[in-house]
Design brief:
There is one protein chain. The chain is of the alpha+beta class. It has 24 helices and 20 strands. Strands 1-3-2-4-5 form a five-stranded mixed sheet, sandwiched between helices.
C-alpha cells in the first residue's frame, strides 16, 4: 500500500518532470507565475528563484541535502517566496539569471539559485550551496539567513543594487559589436586559436572537465573541406576516436554521456542528453563520409539506435534526457565488476572482453568499472595472440549478453518532455543518416517526428516549445523556430516533398516577423508577443546547443539559395557580422556560427534531379561530404515558381536528369550516376 506523501506543494500540478521531482518537498514552491510575485509584493518578501533540470546530478544533491530538509524549508518558507524553474522549459528565465550570476560571480551552472526583488530583478545568486560550510562555500542555510537579514535591514539598498545591476546588464547587451567584412581570414584565425587549445594527446580542447565539442568539430570538417588543411581533419578524427573509445561513450547501449570529468574522456557525468547525441551522431556521420572509416559509421549507428530504442516516444517525439543516477547512485546502471562479467561470460571469454574494455578487479570508478578501450581490435588481437575474428566474435557476443543483463537493472530516470528545438536537431540527424547510411527506416522516423511536431506543437497556427502528457504549452523560442525549420529543410532536400519546404519557409518568415531586432539587428531569443521579463536577450554563443541566431542564419542562407530572395541572405549576413566579431575571440564557443560562416564562404553546389525519383543518382549526392550543397528533387515544372533554379530544367529522354550548378551556373545535365559522381567531386 502506497503511503501518502507528508508534503505536497503547487508543483504537483505541473507537467515538467523536474518540477514534479520537487512536488513533495516541504518547501512551499511555486512554479514561475505572477501569483508568486504578487504575494512577494503583498508580504514584502524577496523571491528565491531556483533553476535546474531533471538530469542534473548536483540539482538532485541539493534537493536531498536542502530542499527535502524540513528545517531548511522552514527558513525558506518564512523568509522567501520560493519559485522552481525547469531551465529546459524556460530557457528565457534561465538566460537572464545565469547572465546575472556569471557577471557577478564569474561562474555559472546548475542548480542556479538567485534571490530577486518582487519585481523580478536579481540582487544575489550562486549555483550549488552545500548543507554545511565546505568547498570554500557557505552553507545554504547561512546564505538564506544572511539574505533574509539583509532584506529586513537594508531592503532599499538591495533594491537599488538590483536596479543598478539590471541597468548595467541591459547596457552591456545593447553594445553589440559587429565586423564589416566577412572574409576567409576569420576562419583562419579561429582555426589557429583552436589549434592552440587542442589536446594533442587526448583529443578535444583544454583540460578537465571535457565536453564533446560537436559544433567545433563540424566547423573543422567544413574548414578542411574548403582549405584541405590536414591538421583540421586530424583534430576531428582523433577527437572522435578518443571520445568513442572512452567512458563518455556507452559501449554496451550506444550513445554519449554529457561530459567527462577528466581530460581523457574516461569518467563521465552519466546523464545522456538528446541534443548531445543528435549533434555527435551527425559529426560521426560526416567524419565517415570524409574518411570512409567504418569505425565512425558504427558509432553513428549505435548512437541513433540508442535514441530509437530509448528516447523515441510512441507518438514519434524524442524525449529530452536520461538521468545520471539510479537507485540513488551516480552511474550505477552503467558500471560493472570483474566478478559480474566473469559470471556472465565465463572465464575464457571474460578474459578477452575485460582486457579489451579495461576491466580490472579494482575498477576505475569507485571500485567498479567504466568500460573503455585503450587498443584497437587489431592491436588487442596481437597482444592476446588470437585471431581478429575470434576477438570480434567474443566482443560482440559479450556486448549482447551484458546488454541483456543490464536491461534487468533499475533504469535511470528519463525526462519524457518533448522540446521542439531538440527534436529539430534529432530530426535533422535521422533524415541525413537515412541517405548517408542507406537506411530508409531512419527517414520514416524523421518524417513521423515532423508530423508530430507540426501537429502537436502548434496551436491556432502558433508554434509551441514543450509537450508532455498530451499537453503542449509555452510560446516557442527562437531556437524552436530555427531548429525545426532546419530539420524540415533537410527532409525536403532528401524527399523532394514540397510541403516540407513550404513549412520551413513559413517558419522562417514567422521567425523574422516575431524575433528580429529592427533597431540593432540579430534575433531576440523570445518573440515580440512573449511574456515581458526584466530583460530581452539575444544569444549568439553556441553552448551545449547551437544558438538560435547561428541556426537561423544557416537556414536563411539555404533558403536564399533555394528561393533567390535576397532578404533572407541579408538577415543571415547581419547575424554573421555580429557572431563573427565574438567568434574571433572565442572560437570554441561559436562552432555552429563558424560552420554557418563556412557555408557562406564556400561556393554552393546546387544539385537538381528532375524527373522521377532515382535512387542511383540520389545516392551519389550523399556518398561524399558536401556541406555546401542544396538539393532539389522535382518532377513538377510548377515548382519553379518557388525555386527559380528549376526554370528550364527537364528530363533527358524521359530519364531522371541531374544538373549540378555552382552559384547558379550549371554544368551539362547527366542521367548516369558515374557522370554525376565526377561532377560532384570536382572542386570549384
Amino acid at each position: 500500500m502506497e503511503t501518502k506523501p507528508k508534503f505536497t506543494n503547487r508543483l504537483v500540478n505541473e507537467t515538467s518532470p523536474y518540477l514534479l521531482q520537487h512536488a513533495h518537498n516541504p518547501v512551499d514552491w511555486y512554479p514561475w507565475c505572477e501569483e508568486a510575485f504578487e504575494r512577494a509584493k503583498a508580504e514584502d518578501k524577496p523571491v528565491l528563484v531556483s533553476i535546474g533540470y531533471s538530469a542534473c546530478h548536483w540539482c538532485h544533491v541539493m534537493e536531498r541535502e536542502s530542499f527535502e530538509d524540513e528545517e531548511t524549508a522552514k527558513i525558506m518558507n518564512e523568509n522567501f517566496i520560493n519559485i522552481k524553474v525547469d531551465m529546459e522549459e524556460r530557457p528565457d528565465i534561465d538566460q537572464i539569471y545565469m547572465t546575472f550570476v556569471q557577471a557577478t560571480t564569474g561562474n555559472g551552472g546548475w542548480p542556479l539559485n538567485v534571490f530577486v526583488t518582487p519585481d523580478k530583478k536579481p540582487f544575489f545568486g550562486g549555483t550549488y550551496f552545500p548543507p554545511q560550510d565546505r568547498y570554500n562555500l557557505p552553507s545554504f542555510r547561512r546564505v538564506l539567513m544572511a539574505v533574509a537579514e539583509a532584506w529586513r535591514k537594508d531592503k532599499n539598498k538591495l533594491i537599488e543594487s538590483a536596479n543598478e545591476i539590471t541597468r548595467q546588464i541591459e547596457s552591456a547587451i545593447k553594445i553589440e559589436t559587429k565586423i564589416s567584412d566577412l572574409n576567409p581570414q576569420i576562419s583562419d584565425i579561429a582555426f589557429e586559436k583552436l589549434l592552440k587549445s587542442y589536446d594533442e594527446k587526448n583529443g578535444g580542447f583544454g583540460g578537465a572537465p571535457k565536453f564533446p565539442p560537436s559544433m567545433t568539430l563540424e566547423f573543422l570538417l567544413r574548414y578542411y573541406n574548403r582549405t584541405k588543411n590536414k591538421k583540421a581533419l586530424e583534430i576531428v578524427t582523433k577527437t572522435c576516436r578518443k571520445m568513442a573509445s572512452g567512458g563518455i561513450y556507452d559501449h554496451i547501449g550506444g550513445g554519449f554521456h554529457r561530459y567527462s570529468v577528466d581530460a581523457f574522456w574516461l569518467v563521465p557525468h552519466f546523464e545522456k542528453m538528446l541534443y548531445d547525441n543528435a549533434q555527435l551522431a551527425r559529426v560521426y556521420l560526416h567524419t565517415f563520409q570524409v574518411t570512409g572509416d567504418k569505425f565512425f559509421k558504427r558509432i553513428a549507428i549505435e548512437t541513433l539506435e540508442y535514441v530509437r530504442r530509448e528516447m523515441l516516444s510512441p507518438e514519434s517525439g524524442f524525449y529530452s534526457t536520461q538521468d545520471a543516477d539510479s537507485e540513488g547512485e551516480e552511474g550505477k546502471f552503467f558500471l560493472w565488476t570483474l566478478d559480474e562479467i566473469e559470471e556472465l561470460l565465463g572465464k575464457e571469454d571474460a578474459q578477452i572482453f575485460c582486457f579489451y574494455y579495461g576491466v580490472t578487479e579494482d575498477g576505475n570508478f569507485e571500485g567498479k568499472n567504466i568500460l573503455n578501450t585503450r587498443y584497437t581490435p587489431d592491436e588487442t588481437a596481437k597482444i592476446l595472440k588470437i585471431s581478429i575474428e575470434k576477438l570480434l566474435e567474443t566482443i560482440e557476443k559479450g556486448k549482447r549478453i551484458l546488454f541483456g543483463h543490464r536491461e534487468k537493472r533499475i533504469r535511470p530516470f528519463r525526462d519524457e518532455k518533448i522540446l521542439t528545438s531538440w527534436n529539430g536537431l534529432m530530426m535533422t540527424t535521422f533524415a541525413e543518416a537515412s541517405v548517408i547510411l542507406d537506411l530508409p527506416e531512419y527517414m520514416e522516423i524523421a518524417e513521423k517526428n515532423a508530423v508530430f511536431l507540426l501537429g502537436k506543437l502548434r496551436k491556432d497556427g502558433k508554434l509551441l516549445h514543450v509537450y508532455k502528457d498530451e499537453t503542449a504549452k509555452l510560446n516557442a523560442y527562437l531556437e524552436d523556430y530555427a531548429n525545426l525549420a532546419d530539420g524540415l529543410l533537410e527532409l525536403y532536400q532528401i524527399s523532394g516533398k514540397m510541403q516540407y519546404l513550404k513549412e520551413a519557409l513559413r517558419l522562417a518568415d514567422e521567425m523574422i516577423e516575431k524575433f528580429w531586432d529592427e533597431h540593432e539587428g540579430g534575433f531576440f531569443s523570445t518573440s515580440h508577443d512573449h511574456e515581458e521579463l526584466i530583460l530581452r536577450l539575444k544569444e549568439f554563443q553556441d553552448n551545449a546547443t547551437p544558438s538560435g541566431n547561428s541556426v537561423a542564419a544557416d537556414v536563411l542562407l539555404k533558403l536564399f539559395k533555394l528561393t533567390e530572395k535576397p532578404e533572407y541572405q541579408e538577415y543571415a549576413v547581419e547575424v554573421l557580422k555580429k557572431a563573427m566579431s565574438q567568434a574571433l575571440r572565442y572560437p570554441n564557443a561559436f562552432g555552429r556560427a563558424l560552420s554557418t560562416f563556412e557555408f557562406y564562404l564556400s561556393p554552393t553546389k546546387e544539385i537538381v534531379i528532375f524527373g522521377e525519383k532515382s535512387k542511383e543518382l540520389e545516392k551519389e549526392i550523399w556518398k561524399i561530404y558536401l556541406p555546401n550543397k542544396i538539393v532539389i528533387l522535382s518532377s513538377n515544372k510548377a515548382d519553379a515558381n518557388l525555386i527559380p533554379l528549376l526554370g528550364g530544367k527537364k528530363s533527358i529522354e524521359g530519364k531522371p536528369t541531374a544538373y549540378v550548378c555552382v552559384n547558379g551556373t550549371c554544368k551539362e545535365p547527366v542521367t548516369e550516376a558515374e557522370k554525376l559522381k565526377i561532377q560532384l567531386s570536382y572542386q570549384t
